[in-house]
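Contributing new records

If you add data, match the layout below exactly. Sequence lines come first and carry their own label; structure lines follow with theirs. Keep one chain per record. Anything else will be rejected by the validation script.
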Amino acid sequence: KTKVEDIGGKLADLKVETFVTEEPKDLKLYGLDEPAQEVTLFTKGSEAAQIVQFGAALTNDATKVYAKRKATSSIFTVKNDILSNLVVQVNDLRDRALAEFETDQVKAIELTVGGQVVKLARGTNDWAIVEPAKLKAEQEACDQFVHHVRDAEIKEFAADVVTDLAQVGLDKPVCEVTFKKERIA
């Protein structure tokens, strides 16, 4: 969220340095026949996208690049430092939180390890093991476990689409954790 908002803020602050021409004869002169970058912006309350294209650097001032809105013919210049902010990979923008939830909403946990299932339920003030047997649970350990999972961050995105779970070792997971908002009886 922070990275996306940062890019949005930089784009919102982007100002035209100079207006070059309203009717260009050849977009190739400005590097806009095949733009180096193209940004599509959707603003709240508007269904139409704003598309800005960025072209070549000026020959007499490398700190500026040619740009234009795709829907218009007007060409202008902007500072080129915006381009370094736009060159990002999709994984750089992805949320790295493993799971997003409020810890106080977790009322039950189901752990499956090596085929064995352990179920925990949170009462008003305490945790209890409800399966495979009804036992009192270590309160601090249960609370810390919930916090650790909530605070865990993804280090690397291995693949966007996985068709064979065996390739990534998830056909037979070592451990499976399920958090529930309702108690297990």
